[in-house]
Amino acid sequence: MPPSGEIVGFIGLGNMGRPMGASLARSGFEVVGYDADSAAAAAFAGETGCRTAPTLAALAAAASVAVTMLPTGAIVRQVLLEEEGGALAHGLGVGNAGGGLVIDMSSSEPVGTRALGAALAERGVGLVDAPVSGGVEKARDGTLAIMIGADDAPAAERAEPVLRAMGDRLFRAGPLGAGHAAKALNNYIAAAAFTAASEALIVGDAFGLERETLLTIVNNSTGRNFNSEVPMKQHVLPRTFATGFKLGLMAKDVAIAADLAEAVGADAPLAVTMKARWAEANAALGPGADFTRAITHWEPK
Ligand code: NAD
After folding, report:
1. Contact in structure between 166 and 265 (CB atoms under 8 Å)
2. Ligand 1 centre from 287 Cα, in Å?
């Protein structure tokens, strides 16, 4: 019997989903995987020994809970309500006596998450948003930070044992969509810090200040942050650019934060600038590039 009795259908076995699904399996959950890319599904099955489902309908028939770890909220909605005629949401609803549950762990757009919650409720399926922070390394270790948004306490409580298998810091952010809002705002801060550090390195280059020297000083001073300590030091200095977090996803997160500011009528000019700056780098380098490569677009040619 899996912990908490849930059988987890895991949808989206990419950079993050694959190690997160593996953490669930390691914790004793029965996991059934699904990805539109059959190579990603096969790699997951090979690595974990878990089953994969050939269709969303088959996944819904096997699972009591569906976890989504997909690129965007629009794709999450499409997978649940549109692909295969909405077989996933329908199957989760009718196939589970206590009601089906979807846990969206993708970094989705919070206003869309609220609309999706209403559409799923009509089909007898609950929704909890539970995006993550920590990147591929913490996904592998099962030590992600997870921010939870839920409108009803029983749904959040039902999701928690599943989430504890993937993260060691769980935060109740607020109602449905609050986790997604917190995630976008966190990544906006991280993106702004990366942009500021990139500019500092570029200014230092022009002045004749060694990049390694400047970063060592910053990392022992008040400018220190996660981006200066890890991505800058481990991926920008050696120019390996391989954090496992794609530029297209970072540009999307920054745009979500800027759009949220606009939607609520908040004055956030830096978010507007960041949205434009990351969109430009994304257009120039392509969404599949590692996000740290953005500095190569900002460096003088
Ligand atoms: P990824 O691009 O590596 O993986 C996404 C997976 O979804 C791919 O395997 C793809 O084939 C699959 N997919 C796309 N459309 C599909 C569909 N219609 N049906 C089924 N499968 C489909 O992305 P990732 O880095 O794993 O990120 C996933 C989510 O997590 C994103 O929302 C991202 O912003 C967020 N996130 C990523 C990181 C990171 O460090 N990579 C960290 C925190 C949060």
Report:
1. no
2. 12
